[in-house]
Design brief:
This protein is mainly α. The protein has one domain (about 5-175). It contains seven helices and two strands, in the order H-H-H-H-H-E-E-H-H. It has helices at about 5-20, 25-55, 55-80, 80-110, 115-125, 140-160, 165-175; strands at about 130, 135-140.
Amino acid sequence: MDKLQRVLLVLDPWLIRPFRWPDSALAGFLLGTFLLGLLCVLLGDVAAVLVSRLNRKVYGGYIKDMIHDHELSIEAAKTGNKENFKAVNRQAHESFGRYFFSQAAVFTASIWPLPFALAWLDLRFREVLIRLPLLDYDANYVFFFLPLYILARLIYSRTIGRMPWYLRLRLAATLETARPGPSGD
């Protein structure tokens, strides 16, 4: 038995509980799958916040560079020197690219729990197929998990954004990265 499977078996008693709350097997499967997706969203958000906080100086440098290079490109456009504008604009695009891909890394950190949730679902529900009568199709856990995860992500993002403590946490990270000063502070 590999290490991941052993860890999943240790977590199994807690992860399976919501699946058993309703009397109906289908309702339990849908509720448990949704709550597992919500747990993935929560753990992913914690990871994304941590990654953002740990790299705030680097990301702040990217933001500063991007803003500075954008302002330079606007000034170069006003002068009418096409070669100067192209050079500065290329630099602004590179700054934007660094910032964009740093944010892609933060998003990647937010989805790290998904493979583990899918591994646990596979361990538990590999052989289970649910008949979809309108589609004349038998679906496995992935068919249900992905849309329920997306729904959980939407509900979470609309709910957590209204929490004052969460807004302060995000605002503090944003303000700290966007402080004026030379790049790499």
